[in-house]
């Protein structure tokens, strides 16, 4: 009988130990599951943010494609506009023999300019403006006392902007301050 009492007292202790171990296992399992849940939530937020970034970039790419789809075509048309403008510059407006042709070229050029404007293609004609390296390409420098140094004196070729972005820089001659006269012989002595 003594053995039975020993067994009776041991069983509850073993059950308590088993319950304690089970409780610790449960707490550890809950902790592990909470960590997994936090990791899964973090990953979910990151995937959602990545998806939003991809969507935004795709929208921007589509917008740029719409805005600048005409870039190559516009670049190919600019020499035609340049030639029409050059033809008008070189022809004499008082010559009766070419008056009708000149009027036709003027109308064609106006039509070209209106079409370019409709597609947000703007001319950059900086004559007299300060030199801007972002929109102008300096072809030469020339001394001038009539304008401020670093101003555009002549425009060889107009530049163009497409939706505010430079398509072709204006080719210009830029002014510089006149060089000081060399000292005379009296000043050197």
UniProtKB/TrEMBL annotation:
<protein>
    <recommendedName>
        <fullName>Protein GrpE</fullName>
    </recommendedName>
</protein>
<comment type="similarity">
    <text>Belongs to the GrpE family.</text>
</comment>
<keyword id="KW-0175">Coiled coil</keyword>
<feature type="coiled-coil region">
    <location>
        <begin position="23"/>
        <end position="50"/>
    </location>
</feature>
<keyword id="KW-0346">Stress response</keyword>
<dbReference type="InterPro" id="IPR013805">
    <property type="entry name" value="GrpE_CC"/>
</dbReference>
<dbReference type="InterPro" id="IPR009012">
    <property type="entry name" value="GrpE_head"/>
</dbReference>
<comment type="subunit">
    <text>Homodimer.</text>
</comment>
<keyword id="KW-0143">Chaperone</keyword>
<dbReference type="Pfam" id="PF01025">
    <property type="entry name" value="GrpE"/>
</dbReference>
<keyword id="KW-0963">Cytoplasm</keyword>
<comment type="function">
    <text>Participates actively in the response to hyperosmotic and heat shock by preventing the aggregation of stress-denatured proteins, in association with DnaK and GrpE. It is the nucleotide exchange factor for DnaK and may function as a thermosensor. Unfolded proteins bind initially to DnaJ; upon interaction with the DnaJ-bound protein, DnaK hydrolyzes its bound ATP, resulting in the formation of a stable complex. GrpE releases ADP from DnaK; ATP binding to DnaK triggers the release of the substrate protein, thus completing the reaction cycle.</text>
</comment>
<dbReference type="InterPro" id="IPR000740">
    <property type="entry name" value="GrpE"/>
</dbReference>
């Amino acid at each position: 009988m003594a053995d039975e009492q020993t067994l009776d007292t041991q069983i509850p202790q073993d059950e308590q130990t088993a319950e304690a171990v089970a409780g610790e296992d449960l707490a550890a399992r809950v902790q592990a599951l909470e960590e997994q849940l936090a990791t899964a939530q973090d990953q979910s937020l990151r995937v959602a943010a990545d998806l939003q970034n991809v969507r935004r970039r795709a929208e921007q790419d589509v917008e740029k494609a719409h805005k600048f789809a005409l870039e190559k075509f516009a670049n190919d048309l600019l020499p035609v506009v340049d030639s029409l403008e050059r033809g008008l510059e070189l022809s004499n407006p008082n010559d009766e023999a070419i008056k009708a042709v000149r009027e036709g070229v003027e109308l064609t050029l106006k039509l070209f300019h209106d079409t370019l404007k409709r597609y947000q293609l703007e001319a950059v004609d900086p004559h007299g403006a300060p030199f801007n390296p972002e929109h102008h390409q300096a072809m030469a420098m020339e001394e001038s006392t009539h304008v401020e140094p670093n101003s555009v004196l002549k425009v060889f070729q107009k530049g163009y902007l497409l939706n505010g972005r430079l398509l072709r820089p204006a080719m210009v001659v830029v002014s510089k301050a006149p060089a000081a006269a060399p000292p005379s012989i009296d000043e050197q002595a």
